[in-house]
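Researcher: If convenient, please comment on what follows.
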Amino acid sequence: MSGGMTSRPGADPHPIVLFDGVCNFCNRSVNFVIKHDRRDYFRFAPLQTAKGGEIARRFGIDPEQLDTLVLVENGRAYRKSDGALLVARRLGGLYALAYALVVIPPFVRDWFYDWFARRRYRWFGKRDECMVPTPEVRERFLTD
């Protein structure tokens, strides 16, 4: 993995996905992960919430920088393509095959990640507020 990870003590038993809660693409991605996470492995928190911001700051990440997905797992924070590829790997099945992209140098992967992130609002739009999880998955979202 690239330098996109930061270590901190106190690993959580469930990996946490921090995401831009008003980004339509990000919300669709979270819903995709929820649907395909058959083991209920992941927990989620929008970066705009107090809890999401607190977790981001714990790893030295500015929660105002909404251009990245962050996966917090085993006391480490994985950003951008590192985080996305690890999420795909943890989903298993055919999705895990995406992890093979880790052979591409991180600076190349993250260049494409940043290019896409800069355009995501224009292409997919954004909401006025963070998504409200359905009652079926509410327990998987970290609350303030």
